[in-house]
Design goal:
alpha+beta, two-stranded antiparallel sheet, about 15% strand, elongated
Length: about 140
């Protein structure tokens, strides 16, 4: 667990820049419920980190803006019973979050026009539907 966090092939977060806090998990108890600090909060300072590449910093800050508190993103993991498993889960989730935020934006959509055939099919379907509804009105001449 002392190694860093590999986000992409060219970007790794050193372990010294990650901050972990431990606390007691919620949920049903047992013998170790009052003693085991198995919940993990993993924090990473995105805004002030020297390991973030300069070309990605603005994109990360923009995409993670709803999750950042003073430039720091925090991940909490308490789904496992052991602290080690929760630490691993928090690191995987942080790496996935940073990977998705650093991904390049999708290509912009090129607007297209509907084809003549698709327009005709749509209009003929509307006509058929109207005829069906007109037939249900119960007018018998």
């Amino acid at each position: 667990m002392d190694d860093g966090l590999q986000v992409t092939g060219s970007w790794a977060v050193p372990a010294a820049e990650l901050t972990e806090r431990f606390s007691r998990s919620s949920g049903p108890g047992g013998q170790g419920v009052n003693t085991a600090d198995s919940r993990v909060e993993l924090s990473y300072d995105v805004a002030g980190s020297p390991s973030v590449p300069d070309h990605l910093r603005d994109r990360l800050l923009a995409r993670l803006s709803s999750r950042l508190v003073d430039g720091v993103v925090t991940i909490a993991a308490s789904e496992h019973r052991t602290q080690l498993a929760n630490r691993r889960a928090a690191r995987e989730r942080l790496a996935q979050l940073l990977r998705e935020a650093a991904a390049p934006p999708p290509p912009s959509r090129r607007p297209t026009r509907p084809t003549r055939g698709s327009k005709e099919r749509r209009l003929s379907a509307k006509k058929r539907r109207g005829e069906t509804k007109r037939g249900r009105q119960g007018r018998f001449d």
